[in-house]
């Protein structure tokens, strides 16, 4: 896990340094993932994205993150992964100091959980729309944000026929995770 965070920090620093040379924004955000009420087990998400403005209201970019999901009444209690995604963002009134915005992340998440020899958990597709509010800082480029969203994440578990020394059949289990997200972030 230390290696993962070291690589993530190095990539983030590279993106931040590169964004000083081009008109790219780096957006870092973190938050919670809930699938029932806030009293249930809450997962968490941290992600960073580099976005390039296509015009004052629309920007596109790519991002990377870390997420952990908790499952209720399943054979797996939690799943963690690294999402790699493309992001599109629309800012309603970019010329004002405060504005509503919408964003969409679409991509693939890679599983980080260790598996046994006869069981493999694979990542899957990711889709995450958000609606948020942003506050620009004094330089009118950087901003703080808060967003409420929905996150769909898929994981697949493949169990081989050799389970405990006996022969059986292949078993595939698909985890379709639906979560509400509350994220706070900063762009610079």
Task: State the gist of this model.
10% of the residues lie in helices and 60% in strands.
Give a written overview of the molecule.
This is Outer membrane protein with beta-barrel domain. With about 190 residues, this protein is mostly beta strands. The chain has one domain (about 1-185): Porin, CATH 2.40.160.20. Helices cover about 10% and strands about 60% of the residues. It has 1 helix and 9 strands, in the order αβββββββββ. It has an 8-stranded antiparallel beta barrel. β2 (about 45-55) and β3 (about 60-70) form a beta hairpin. The chain starts with a helix and ends with a strand. The mean pLDDT is about 80.
Q: In terms of per-residue confidence, which ranges show pLDDT below 50 for 5 or more consecutive residues?
A: none
Q: How many distinct folded domains? A: 1
Mean pLDDT: 82
Secondary structure: helix percent: under 10%
Order of helices and strands: HEEEEEEEEE
CATH architecture: Beta Barrel
Category by helix and strand content: mainly beta
Please list the strands of the largest sheet in the order they lie side by side.
Answer: 1-2-3-4-5-7-8-9
Portion in strands: over 45%
Rg of Cα set: 19 Å
The biggest sheet amounts to: 8 strands, antiparallel, barrel
Total number of strands: 9
Number of helices: 1
CATH fold call: Porin
Mass-distribution shape: elongated
- Using the coordinates above, name the CATH class: Mainly Beta
Distance between the termini: 27 Å
Protein name: Outer membrane protein with beta-barrel domain
Organism: Sphingobacterium alimentarium
């Amino acid at each position: 896990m230390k290696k993962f965070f070291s690589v993530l920090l190095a990539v983030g620093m590279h993106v931040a340094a590169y964004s000083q040379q081009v008109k790219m924004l780096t957006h870092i955000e973190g938050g919670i993932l809930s699938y029932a009420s806030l009293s249930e087990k809450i997962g968490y998400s941290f992600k960073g994205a580099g976005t390039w403005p296509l015009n004052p209201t629309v920007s596109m970019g790519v991002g990377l993150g870390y997420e952990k999901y908790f499952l209720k009444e399943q054979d797996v209690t939690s799943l963690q992964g690294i999402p790699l995604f493309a992001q599109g963002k629309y800012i309603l009134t970019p010329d004002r100091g405060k504005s509503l915005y919408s964003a969409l992340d679409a991509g693939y998440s890679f599983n980080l959980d260790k598996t046994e020899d006869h069981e493999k958990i694979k990542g899957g597709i990711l889709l995450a729309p958000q609606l948020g509010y942003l506050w620009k800082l004094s330089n009118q480029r950087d901003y703080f944000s808060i967003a409420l969203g929905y996150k769909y994440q898929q994981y697949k578990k493949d169990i081989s026929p050799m389970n405990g020394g006996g022969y059986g059949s292949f078993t595939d289990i698909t985890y379709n995770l639906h979560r509400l997200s509350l994220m706070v972030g900063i762009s610079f």
